[in-house]
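Q: Hi! Curious about what MSLN protein looks like structurally. Here's the sequence.
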Amino acid sequence: RLASLDPSACSQETKNLLYQKAKEAFSDQHHLPAYYELILPYLGGAPAVDLKALSRDDVNMNISTFVTLRRDSLMKLTPREVQGLLGLNLPELARWQHRAPVRDWIRVQKQSELDQLHLGLTGGTQEGYINIVTPRFPAPSSAPLGTMATAFHLLPALLLSFLMVSILS
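A: Let's find out. The predicted structure is below.
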């Protein structure tokens, strides 16, 4: 409880654990205004459900903290919840709209909901459209293709042979 740590250089798994420990340590102060200040260094490990609850407290989170939140948690927040988290700092979101992770968050939001923030954010999903996400594949390896590629290479010949045998018999 008295430790002052800087978990910013920790792995995501460690940040998640530290957040849970800090949440437990400060649980008796959850309804006090100082709770946000106590939990602030550990928010990089906060799950979406806790960020959603925090958004109802109008905590005025600064943008530098916002962009270091867990990516999976950030992606689950609605524009209204982000507005609740950032509060007076909401206009900063517009300055970050072309940088990750804000850009990625914008892409999964409905444009109509983004428009309600009155920040001029663009890039959200239009109503009535389907978003098709193209999977990213690793770069092809320079390793030999192996038996599987050889089998696929021979597949047309094998199918043709099978077809000829079944026709002739």
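A: A fun detail: The longest helix spans residues 146-168.
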